[in-house]
């Protein structure tokens, strides 16, 4: 699971408070771009 860093900052939730298995990304957009470069596709609904 990847948590958006911008949301983390806005909600005042530091990385130290995240549960095990949750990674912090700079932003949702950077995660989407990274996954798309690995062949994943975004499904909009």
Explain briefly what this protein structure is.
This protein has 45 residues and is α+β, with helices and mostly antiparallel strands.
Whole-number total of structural domains = 1
Largest pleated sheet: 2 strands, parallel
Please provide the count of β strands.
2
Order of SSEs? EHEH
Major sheet: arrangement of strands: 1-2
Q: CA-to-CA gap between the ends?
A: 20 Å
Number of helices: 2
Strand content: 5-15%
Q: Key features?
A:
single chain; 45 residues; alpha+beta; two-stranded parallel sheet; 2 helices; 2 strands
Explain the overall architecture.
- By secondary structure, this protein is of the alpha+beta class.
- It has one domain.
- Helices cover 36% and strands 13% of the residues.
- Strands 1-2 form a two-stranded parallel ribbon.
- Strand 1, helix 1 and strand 2 form a beta-alpha-beta unit.
- The mean pLDDT is 94.
Which SSEs are present, and which pair or pack?
Blueprint: E1 2-4, H1 5-10, E2 23-25, H2 28-37
Parallel strand pairs: 1-2
């Amino acid at each position: 699971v990847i948590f958006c860093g911008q949301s983390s900052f806005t909600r005042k939730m530091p990385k130290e408070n995240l549960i095990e298995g949750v990674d912090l990304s700079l932003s949702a957009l950077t995660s989407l771009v990274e996954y798309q470069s690995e062949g994943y596709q975004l499904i909009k609904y």
